[in-house]
């Protein structure tokens, strides 16, 4: 966000110079909200000493609540703009009860994940767990070995040490993704009004599809020319993962430090580990590139896809060599064309399909992301940085790594045609529900806000956009969808996502528990997200939410749960 040169009103009524000062002012406003009266609920944490002292300085200021300070800021924004429509929007926003509610929620600091102690543990635990799992996959045939056995680490650590080659791959890929994100064409969509920016709406360039097609074109050239051996990716997952872990720590520290130095911090608790974990800055940007959205969309899923593509290429190369030794043909005739015979095993192809569907969905529906909770509310700290830059790509890939290791060891996983077909059908059916459920709700919300853009990105599935759906009108102003999948169960898209996650495990068989990590972990993540979201919606919509839950009583599976 480029700093504004015009003046704004701070929480204590003083005029401040730029966005950084506004952020500082809001920080003080937030601390007073944390420890203050009616905004905090009983589960909010007691303020640490640094917060308490900030509170006492804030309380000596004129008696402005967090809401009134943001309203002042919003009015100031309205004064500043020369665009008449924007002026009207901001003036209306400053009067809106719904926006005041958003301001309250945005200001509230509440310890999650066990507070400072819990997050410190998580920051150390996740990298250790990922290294352990990978070493077990690679060196223990997928068996869960004793993590306290020194021999396990002595044997495994050399296989996960960062290398220059791994650094070049990971950092080169990330830099290329920054470049394409900044330069390729796409649609521009607006986010939700940001309370800490006085209701301003940030713009997001959604060119994910263009970047994805460029990636695919480059990969097609790389694979057909052999200029780079794609198998190198799957053979170096351990070192690449370590580079990713180190990079995410570095980005966390740099982002935190820069935000503190520039004074662009937001909703700070005063606990260093907690603020490192949850993040210090809400909308980190390089020019127009929103780093939080970039890391969420452009890095994890594409790396996951690359790992599976690499495993598929390696498996094909190995099987093609064997086929050649056996005198089998390497090409087949198809409508007069001589096409290469793909010799990748069905389970590895399954993982490639699963990851392709996921990455493609993220790219084609990218315009729905700017209004999500992660972008609107969560800050860019260790939680999002680590998870997107290292956690998702290198822990959701265990099924692929396991299948690839087994194939390389000459003991490939295979199933009956019936079981394999069943899993393919289950994956595609779950994908359909997941894609269309997400799309129905997101498009409904976009239509409601007047930001809907019709897209033709592949594949547009039937029932992805609802025509004249039923809904509940809330006092908040937002409508709650009760039509389409959203009338069947409140979180049916989570159920579909979980079915896909389970299928990623089932395709590896039952000899190793590690490929089921993603499913197990995902159940925990989504359970946490459901309770957090239900709490958030109840808080936001009050009795209307109760009405909605009566109308759509099931959460995950209709008539069951
Ligand atoms: P949701 O898509 O369920 O979004 C929740 C928000 O939607 C609510 O806060 C509310 O926001 C709005 N909402 C809820 N009910 C309704 C309704 N009936 N009508 C209209 N709006 C409603 O959750 P997530 O953002 O967590 O998940 C999005 C997708 O991402 C899911 O499919 C999930 O499975 C997937 N996901 C995948 C992860 C992975 O690692 N693979 C991790 C996390 C998510 P409001 O009213 O404020 O608009």
The main β sheet shows up as: 2 strands, antiparallel
Number of domains: 1
Number of strands: 10
Mean pLDDT: 89
Query: What small molecules are bound in this structure?
Result: NADPH dihydro-nicotinamide-adenine-dinucleotide phosphate
Shape label: globular
Low-confidence stretches: 1-63
Summing up helix and strand content along with how strands pair, one would put the structural category as: mainly alpha
Count of helical stretches: 22
- Main sheet: strand order: 1-2
Pfam family, one: ERG4_ERG24
Membrane topology: Multi-pass membrane protein
Family: Belongs to the ERG4/ERG24 family.
Organism: Pseudictyota dubia
Describe what you observe in this structure.
By secondary structure, the chain is mainly α. The protein has one domain (4-551). 60% of the residues lie in helices and 5% in strands. It contains 22 helices and 10 strands. The chain has a two-stranded antiparallel sheet with strand order 1-2. It has a two-stranded antiparallel ribbon with strand order 3-4. α1 crosses α2 (49-59) and α3 runs antiparallel to α4 (84-95). The chain is globular and about 75 Å long. The two termini are 44 Å apart. The model is unreliable at 1-63 (pLDDT under 50). NADPH dihydro-nicotinamide-adenine-dinucleotide phosphate is lined by residues 372-373, 392, 434, 438, 441, 445, 478, 480-481, 486, 493-494, 497, 525, 529, 533, 536-537.
């Amino acid at each position: 966000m480029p700093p504004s040169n015009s003046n704004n009103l701070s929480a204590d009524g003083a005029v401040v110079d730029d966005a950084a000062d506004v952020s500082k002012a809001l920080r003080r406003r937030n601390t007073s909200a944390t420890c203050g009266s009616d905004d905090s609920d009983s589960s909010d944490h007691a303020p640490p000493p640094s917060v308490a002292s900030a509170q006492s300085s804030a309380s000596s200021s004129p008696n402005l609540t967090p809401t009134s300070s943001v309203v002042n800021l919003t009015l100031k924004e309205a004064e500043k703009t020369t665009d008449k429509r924007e002026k009207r929007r901001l003036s209306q926003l400053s009067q809106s009860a719904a926006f005041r509610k958003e301001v309250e929620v945005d200001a509230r600091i509440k310890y999650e994940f066990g507070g400072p102690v819990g997050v410190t543990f998580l920051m150390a635990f996740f990298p250790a767990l990922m290294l352990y799992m990978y070493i077990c996959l690679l060196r223990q045939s997928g068996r869960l070995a004793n993590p306290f056995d020194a021999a396990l680490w002595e044997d495994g650590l050399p296989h996960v040490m960062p290398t220059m080659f791994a650094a070049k791959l990971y950092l080169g890929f990330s830099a290329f993704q920054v470049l394409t994100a900044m330069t390729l064409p796409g649609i521009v969509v607006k986010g939700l009004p940001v309370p800490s920016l006085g209701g301003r709406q940030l713009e997001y360039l959604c060119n994910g599809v263009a970047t994805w097609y460029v990636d695919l074109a480059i990969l097609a050239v790389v694979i057909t020319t052999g200029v780079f051996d794609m198998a190198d990716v799957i053979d170096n997952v351990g070192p690449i993962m370590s580079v990713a872990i180190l990079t995410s720590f570095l980005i966390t520290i740099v982002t935190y430090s820069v935000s503190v130095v520039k004074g662009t911090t937001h909703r700070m608790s005063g606990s260093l580990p907690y603020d490192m974990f949850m993040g210090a800055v809400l909308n980190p940007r390089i020019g127009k590139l929103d780093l939080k959205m970039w890391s969420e969309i452009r890095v994890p899923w594409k790396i996951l896809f690359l790992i599976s593509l690499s495993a598929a290429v390696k498996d094909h190369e190995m099987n093609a060599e064997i086929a050649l030794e056996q005198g089998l043909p390497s090409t087949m005739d198809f409508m007069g064309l001589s096409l290469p015979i793909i010799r990748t095993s069905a389970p590895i192809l399954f993982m490639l399909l699963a990851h392709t569907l996921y990455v493609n969905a993220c790219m084609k529906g990218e315009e729905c992301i700017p209004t999500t909770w992660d972008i609107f509310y969560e800050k860019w700290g260790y939680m999002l940085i680590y998870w997107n830059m290292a956690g998702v790509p290198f822990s959701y890939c265990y099924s692929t790594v396991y299948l690839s290791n087994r194939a390389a060891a000459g003991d490939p996983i295979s199933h009956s045609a019936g079981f394999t077909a069943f899993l393919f059908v289950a994956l595609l059916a779950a994908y359909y529900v997941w894609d269309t459920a997400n799309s129905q709700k997101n498009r409904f919300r976009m239509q409601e806000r007047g930001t809907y853009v019709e897209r033709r990105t592949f594949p547009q599935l039937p029932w992805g956009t609802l025509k004249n759906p039923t809904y509940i009108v809330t006092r908040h102003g937002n409508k709650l969808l009760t039509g389409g999948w959203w009338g069947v169960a409140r979180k049916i898209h989570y159920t579909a996502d979980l079915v896909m996650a389970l299928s990623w495990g089932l395709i590896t068989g039952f000899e190793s528990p590690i490929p089921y990590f993603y499913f197990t972990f995902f159940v925990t993540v989504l359970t946490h997200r459901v309770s957090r979201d239900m709490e958030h919606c109840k808080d936001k919509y009050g009795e209307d939410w109760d009405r909605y839950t009566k109308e759509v009583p099931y959460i995950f599976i209709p008539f069951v749960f």
